[in-house]
Amino acid sequence: MSAKDVARMVRNASIIEKAIVEFEQDIVSRIRMDGLSPQEFYGPGARKHPPTLTPTERPRFICSYYALWSLMTVDRSTWEPRLQAMTSQELYYVQEMTKLTQRIGREEIPPSLRFPHDPSYPFDFHDHDQEQKRIDLRSSIWEQIQRNSWRFFKSEAQGASIFAMHEGFL
């Protein structure tokens, strides 16, 4: 491994850490447990979700973030084989990550949420190409989720937003 590779790893780790902090401030701090028992999920005495990602959520966030980042940096023509190699769970995580209102990797201009309840136009980018790429990627991921659902369950897939509604995000 070269010094350049190590420097890139350190830079990427810093980008991921900043993304986690931003996610915790913008999303995790607002999680509600309506109708669910916090003790069941987070241990005795818990009254709500912790203010930071839990030890099991953090690695899932990191893997999903890196997966999204890598997909955003490659040509659209390479998405399909990459998406086919992912599990349905990974696809759901990455698809939800496309909705983040923060930078992914080294995007120059962060998106801002425009219509929180309209999944087809969620970002107000200053860079139309990046906006369209995220929208296209979300659509490609959803198509793969649907293919997996029909292949394994012979039925339509459910969007993850149904779970977000339960936790108070929609």
Write structural notes for this entry:
- The protein is globular, with a radius of gyration of 17 Å.
- With about 170 residues, it is mostly helical.
- It contains seven helices and no strands.
- Helices cover about 55% and strands about 0% of the residues.
Keywords:
disordered C terminus, 170 residues, 55% helix, 0% strand, 7 helices, mainly alpha
H/E element string? Answer: HHHHHHH
Give me the secondary-structure category.
Answer: mainly alpha
Helical amount: 55-70%
> What is the count of DSSP helices, taking H or I runs of 4+ residues?
7
Give the low-pLDDT segments. Answer: 113-126, 166-170
**Judging from the principal axes of the Cα atoms, what is the shape?**
globular
Radius of gyration: 17 Å
Strand content: under 5%
Q: Report the sheet with the most strands, covering strand number, pairing sense and barrel closure.
A: none
Average per-residue pLDDT, rounded, comes to 81
Extended strand count: 0
Distance N to C terminus:
45 Å
